[in-house]
Input
Amino acid sequence: MPGSLINIENIKTYFPHKKTLTGKVATWIKAVDGVTLRIFTGECLGLVGESGCGKSTLGRTILKLAPLKSGKILFNGEEIQDLDDRGFQPFRPKMQMVFQDPRASLNPKMKVLQILSEALAICPEIDKKQYAQRATELMNMVDLRPEHLFRYPHEFSGGQQQRICIARALATQPEFLVFDEATSALDVSVQAQIINLMADLQKRLNLTYLFISHDLSIMEHICQRVAVMYAGRVMEIQDADALFSSPRHPYTKALRDAVPIADPTKKDGMAILKGEVPSLLNPPGGCRFHPRCPHATQRCKNEVPEADQVKPGNWVCCHYHRTLWEKGLLERLSE
Output
């Protein structure tokens, strides 16, 4: 198994909600509340969960775009969580992000060449005279024509705009890319093209991805492992094929069963997720999922489940899973 490029340990990202008259924070929004992850070099790790679970905040926290309250972030074994802007500057080209809305993330007053040149400017090894040549190479890399460099973002379709965003992220020759719902604003046919482009670039350039989405069906095709997040915490991480064939956490099973399938004979036995997503201002104690879990017990309400490693890189946090494991009845989870 390859070494880990990104290693985060018990990170927490809180946002102030209300303050007292003296300016002290009275309540916090616990967007990310104790997440530990390893992202191996050259892999695409999917991060899935319902809207508001904290997955985008987690991606931004890793790139130091969101405030870290506590925990460690290691890039290639080096701790970066305490670095100021100046200290983090050498790492910035190596870690890039592709945002959800390409139109909003591109400057409408800049032509594509200017947009790419702005990214190339943070690479001291690239001379200004080489910007046009490097920008042309980037356009070819994302299947756009060189003449597109002299157009404005509004002259492109949504899929083309996202290709430009990917080219901009690749301009600094990064090792790690975060895709934050990068295909959710696109048509289905265009989504497939972008997914194929991402997979091709990953193989060609040996990139490491964190692919954030709420669409499990997409992750099945591009991700090697998938992490399932709920209410600020990660519930389960499994190899993609195993997660879809035999999810171990009840929440993961409910997410998988929520994916539409064109076969009415397979609807029996599917898990239906009931209830509402808990508020991150006052999340439930114990297991965060227990108010909506069909297998919840008093232990689930009182104790935070520990991570049980299924195999290297795969683990699940669930008292129900541990009970089945101890009784030797784990195969029932795949029924």
The longest strand covers residues 4-19.
